[in-house]
Amino acid sequence: MEIGVSTFVETTPDVENGKVVSHAERIREVVEEIILADQVGLDVFGVGEHHREDFAASSPAVVLAGAAAQTKRIRLTSAVTVLSSADPVRVFQEFATLDAISNGRAEIMAGRGSFIESFPLFGYELKDYDELFNEKLELLLKIRESEKVTWRGGHRSAINNLGVYPRPVQDPLPVWIGSGGNSESVVRAGLLGLPLVLAIIGGRPTQFEPLVRLYKRAAAKAGHDVSKLPVASHSHGFIAEETEVAANKFFPSTQHVMNKLGRERGWGHYDRSSFDAARSFEGELYVGDSKTVAEKIIHLRKNVGITRFMLHVPVGSMPHDDVIRAIELLGKEVAPIVREEISKWEAEGEGKK
Questions:
Q1: Of 319, 248, 275, 279, residue with least CA distance to 12
Q2: Which one, of 151, 145, 305, lies nearest residue 219 by Cα?
Q3: How far apart are CA 195 and CA 107, in angstroms?
Q4: Checking DSSP bridges between strand 159-163 and strand 148-151, what pairing results, if any?
Q5: pLDDT single digits (tens) 191-232
Q6: Cβ partners under 8 Å of residue 342, min gap 6
Q7: I need a surface site. Which of 63, 117, 178, 290 has the fewest CB within 10 A?
Q8: pLDDT for 128-168, tens place per residue?
Q9: Of the candidates 154, 150, 152, the residue with the CA atom closest to the CA atom of residue 130
Q10: Which of 33, 31, 32, 12 shows the shortest CA–CA distance to 22?
Q11: Is there a contact between 60 and 49 (Cβ–Cβ < 8 Å)?
Q12: Number of Cβ within a 10 Å radius of residue 162
């Protein structure tokens, strides 16, 4: 059971004083967070790609590279790379470079992205949303397979027996598929034999169990060894010494972000009752003291089949010291509880889910 952190490097206004941290400062903070995550024994850190004012990381590979040479063990991944509007050649080159700096710890998490700003920015049409992703994933995997590439598609110039360099330390360079819970994307990941990441940010996490089963059925049907295919979750949360302290610190920035996005997307108003329901034992928020969060992660592993848990923290802008403390607690207190319980459970033969 791997435990880690993901971030979108958000720069929203502080809900108390309205101050906005600069993009440069927030990026430097995230590099500190990655270094700390490595020091406290976490397994993975993910940085998401966005192209709008309230997110500072348009280039996850560069942010991750800033921490790569200062870390020893932690795996470094995008969360996600918006592959539909990216050039797969450059994506591969960037993450192969990150793989070299980190000596074999880079991963690509490829997704369609839930934000659309990158499409007009890079000259793509939203009507081609699905086609772009399918075509570019095909090219990325072809580059991963072979040093010399011959390929032709509909949205990028053809490649005729050209080399793509540098080659990564890992062979193959890990490519995960990120999904918001769409059955089609889950089946595609299974058929391709690629690891799956589910964004479990709404509803009851146990409702995702049928999707994990669907993924494994598709993988098995395609002849892949299901036991070697990890499944990850990306879930919002926050940890403090006491559960109520954690909730009270995490709610304001979460509410700000949820209501801002809600106005853009037509969601209902997000209030404290919505938040408190979501942090219940069966809810999607992993907010509380170390024991509370550990118990929810264990529940997710046993009932959904998740083998990697990524705590998305913060949601919106929170004081850097609070985020640092949450990462420290995740590594030093939560992860040991989870690993010990899951090891016992698996040793008893229950962990074949």
A1: 319
A2: 305
A3: 11
A4: antiparallel
A5: 999 999 999 999 999 999 999 999 999 999 999 999 999 999
A6: 1, 298, 301, 351
A7: 117
A8: 999 999 999 999 999 999 999 999 999 999 999 999 999 99
A9: 154
A10: 12
A11: yes
A12: 14
* Structure tokens belonging to residue 91: 């994506």
Q: Judge whether residue 318 has pLDDT over 60.
A: yes
128 and 119 Cβ atoms separated by less than 8 Å = no
Cross-strand bridge partners of residue 151:
159
Helices (H), the chain: 23-39, 60-68, 88-102, 118-121, 129-145, 183-192, 209-221, 243-265, 272-278, 290-304, 320-329, 335-347
User: Which pTM does this prediction carry?
Assistant: 0.97
Alpha-carbon distances of 50 from 57, 115, 116, 128, 255, rounded to whole Å: 6, 7, 9, 19, 20
Write phi, then psi, for 161 (nearest 5 degrees): 50, 50
| Distance (Å) of CA 229 to CA 33, 46, 168, 184, 196 | 28, 19, 21, 18, 8
CA–CA separation, 180 and 199 (whole Å): 5
Cα–Cα distances (Å) from 162 to 38, 153, 218, 236, 301, in that order, read 37, 15, 33, 42, 43
Phi, psi of 316 (to 5 degrees): 80, -175
The structure tokens listed for 180 are 């918001």
Count CB-CB contacts under 10 A for residue 265. Answer: 8
Q: Give CA–CA dist 24/7, Å, rounded.
A: 15
At 103, list the tokens.
């000596």
Q: Which two tokens stand for residue 46?
A: 């993910």
322, 287 Cβ separation under 8 angstroms: no
What are the counts of helices (DSSP H) followed by strands (DSSP E) for the chain? 12, 12
Asked if 176 and 194 touch (Cβ cutoff 8 Å), the reply is yes
